[in-house]
Amino acid sequence: MQILNTKMQNSHIVSSFELPGEGLDVTGMGFAQNDTEHPDRVLDFWVLGLLMRGIMDLQIGEERAILNAGTYYLLPPYIRHFGRKGDSTFDVLFFHFATDTSCRATQPTRLPIFGYIPPELPYLNLYRFIKRAVDFALLSPEQVNLQVAAILTQLSVMQRYETDEHEGSKRLAYRIMDYIREHIERESSSEQLTEELGYSYGHLDRVFRQHFGTSIHQKLLQLRIDTAAELLLMGRPIKAVATQVGFHDYHYFLKVFKKIRGVSPGTLQRSAGALQDTRGST
Fold first, then answer.
1. What is the pLDDT of residues 61-98, one digit of tens each?
2. Assuming Cys at both sites, which of 57, 70, 107, 228 could form a disulfide with 84, CB separation 3.0 to 4.6 Å?
3. Cα 218 off chain centre by
4. What does the DSSP 8-state code read for residue 42?
């Protein structure tokens, strides 16, 4: 297991770890409510804590952080950690797990000791689902391991996103991507994009190409066709789908769809229908 370093916003050096994607063994989980202080201890396994409510003052080895709701902490084995009693209580969701140090993952998960929780993901509800499924013997230990490994991966992606957000050009590339994703159905013009983001279209396109390897226009077409394919597979009429994803020229939609997907919209729908008929007859 490799120990790395990464810089947080305040330039304080915070340890990071690479965790193998395989060889994870979850040994416990729980939800502690109305705690006032984290215990002083040294463990022989990892702990992932997700702070759901309140504020926690936590020391992990040489690293100290005052954590707010919406953040996580990672307690490495054989390193002393302890909390300082605060004025308020906190609720924390936690998972205990061990890792197989002999496992050499091709894509290890890199995770700092402290970081942010993806706001879109309701981890407390997910924990309750996992716990109930375990109590009902509906999830095997191996399946629980996969669930926790997925959470670690999600947290890792969130830290990469937060780090990238503090790099000027990548932050701008993300803003462009968010804009075209949010306006996928609109016939967005270069003037609208430059007015929204405050840069020339040429500059925006160069930044976007640098980070995503394609032009803004090509990415927008790709997103529209991907959305169109999903709607077509749901049985929506082809012309209605074309309009819904921002193509007001029906024949242009057919041309772009076939170029990107390799088949026409009608062929895609017919092949999906044939597959459903085959499944229904077995």
1. 988 999 999 999 999 999 999 999 988 899 999 999 99
2. 57
3. 24
4. -
Taking the C-alpha atoms of residue 238 and residue 83, their distance in angstroms, rounded to an integer, is 59
Q: With H, G, I as helix, E, B as strand and everything else as coil, classify residue 85.
A: coil
Encode pLDDT of 131-170 as tens digits: 999 999 999 999 999 999 999 999 999 888 777 666 778 8
**26 and 39 co-located in one domain:** yes
Distance CA 128, CA 166 (A): 34
Distance of CA 173 to CAs 7, 12, 35, 46, 205, Å? 22, 27, 41, 36, 9
Give the C-alpha separation, 111 to 117, whole Å: 12
Last residue of a domain, one of 129, 164, 199: 164
CATH number where 184 lies = 1.10.10.60
The number of beta carbons lying within 10 Å of the beta carbon of residue 161 is 13
Is 38 within the bounds of a domain? yes
Residue 56 sits in a domain whose CATH number is 2.60.120.10
Which of 219, 238, 220 has its CA nearest to residue 228?
238
Q: Which of 164, 185, 204 corresponds to the end of one domain?
A: 164
Residues, the chain: 282
Which residues span the domain enclosing 271? 168-276
DSSP state of 235: T
Q: Is 76 inside a domain boundary?
A: yes
50 DSSP β-pair partners: 72, 93
